[in-house]
Amino acid sequence: MSNRRKFGNKNKSKAARQADPTPVIAEDSLPSNSLEQAGTGVKPITKDEIEKSHEFRARTVYDRARWKNGMRVFGVVLMVLLNISLVGSDVERAQKMAHFSLLPEVITFGCLLLMDVTVLMPLIFEVDTIELYQDSLVLRLLFWKAKLKWEDIQYFKLPPMLKFAVVRSQKCFYLINRRDIRNFSQLAESIKKHELEFKPKLKA
Questions:
Q1: Order of strands across the sheet with 153-157?
Q2: Per-residue b/e over 39-71, b at no fewer than 16 CB within 10 Å?
Q3: What is the pLDDT of residue 131?
Q4: Which of 7, 62, 120, 198 can pair with 130 through a Cys bridge, CB separation 3.0 to 4.6 Å?
């Protein structure tokens, strides 16, 4: 009777192994970092994921209040509409062969150009958010994002008569509002620590 029970138990265990499709993994064949995760079904963490997580933890973010960013968007839209309306009115007058008075037109477009330089340009090139990493600087503006390695930056200046700090790269310049960016003094000190890594433009 005992032999029949043993034989029946062997058949049941064999049938159970055939019914279970899960492969049997030898512990010797697993890498050391997967032994603990093999029984839980968790995917092993790769080296790239570890480096990305370390980079994320090393990030420091400096930004301004969201309502101030919304005011910049409104200002850009207003200035673009002003340019379109003034230019469009002159085009319409030219099509109707209307009389032009030179002096008022020169004054009008001179004022428009001045507003574009002093108002529209800072709105476009003003930085909204700065992400500071160990090896780079990420600048988020209204319409695009720029990632600069420290060696891509030519200089970082704080003009005493302006409310903007200037970051000059190989391809463009960026304006950081000292009054709006929170903890600006801490940001400036962090950037200055990397000044030796900057590559200023060589004079011809």
A1: 153-157, 164-169, 173-177
A2: eeeeeeeeeeeeeeeeeeeeeeebbbeeeebee
A3: 92
A4: 62
Is 46 within 8 Å of 105 (Cβ atoms)? no
Please give the pLDDT value at position 164.
92
Instruction: Give just the sign of the alpha carbon dihedral 89, 90, 91, 96.
Output: positive
pLDDT digits (tens, 9 = 90+) for 132-187: 998 889 999 989 999 999 989 999 999 888 889 999 998 899 999 998 898 999 99
Integer Cα distance of 184 and 130 in angstroms:
10
What are 121's two structure tokens?
Answer: 């340009």
| Strand pairing class (136-140; 129-132) | antiparallel
Residues of the chain with pLDDT under 50: 1-8, 12, 15-16, 19-38, 50-51, 54-57
CA angle 157, 158, 161 (to 5 degrees): 130
**What's the burial of 131, exposed, middle or buried (CB within 10 Å: 0-12/13-18/19+)?**
middle
- Rounded to 5 degrees, what angle do the CA atoms 70, 72, 75 make? 115
